[in-house]
């Protein structure tokens, strides 16, 4: 893409590794990695899987280099242990300003159709998962949901008792302003006044 994204922000790591490892085979021009590096270095990656895939490319390596690593030459360097921040606190323990997020769930595919909306208040910087949790706490009969932990983070499998199915090729799709979110519920951070839609969809 013109802005340097290869596929999406999560496919970037492996794509950059592949392009870096095969750059000598490119003709008639070399791969210009500046745009791609700019994209990944400015993105706030949260999932371990995404970080693991993008870090090798950022240091000019790929997984192909793993076979030639000299492990004996490395030193045991433990990262500094930091206490996790409270979800309601920002840096330096300062309370984060509350934001309001509008959240709706819609099903027009299976069984009895439904559409419900609510507004929840969460600290700024909260993830979409926290928005779903607050909505479910305030109105469990309507906004209850289930997740499964995947390698890329939590995935919403069911909302309002309606679960996605590989057999039916159905899933819960999350959108903002009609556009599919490019991050999962565990990392996407809605802004104040944003309307998040969960739509039961097919693929």
Automatic annotation (TrEMBL):
GO process terms (BP): cobalamin transport; cobalt ion transport
Name of the molecule in the record: IF factor
A Pfam family: DUF4430
GO cellular component: extracellular space
Record key words, sorted: Cobalt, Cobalt transport, Ion transport, Secreted, Signal, Transport
Subcellular location: Secreted
Major localization listed first in the record, in broad terms: secreted
Transcobalamin-like C-terminal domain sequence ranges: 125-197
Matches recorded under InterPro entries: Cbl-bd_prot (IPR002157), Cobalamin_Transport (IPR051588), Transcobalamin-like_C (IPR027954)
Encoding gene per record: Gif_1
Positions of cyanocob(III)alamin binding: 8, 53, 181, 203
GO molecular function terms attached to this record: cobalamin binding
Annotated family: Belongs to the eukaryotic cobalamin transport proteins family.
Taxonomic lineage: Eukaryota, Metazoa, Chordata, Craniata, Vertebrata
Entries under PANTHER family matching the protein: COBALAMIN BINDING INTRINSIC FACTOR, TRANSCOBALAMIN-1/GASTRIC INTRINSIC FACTOR
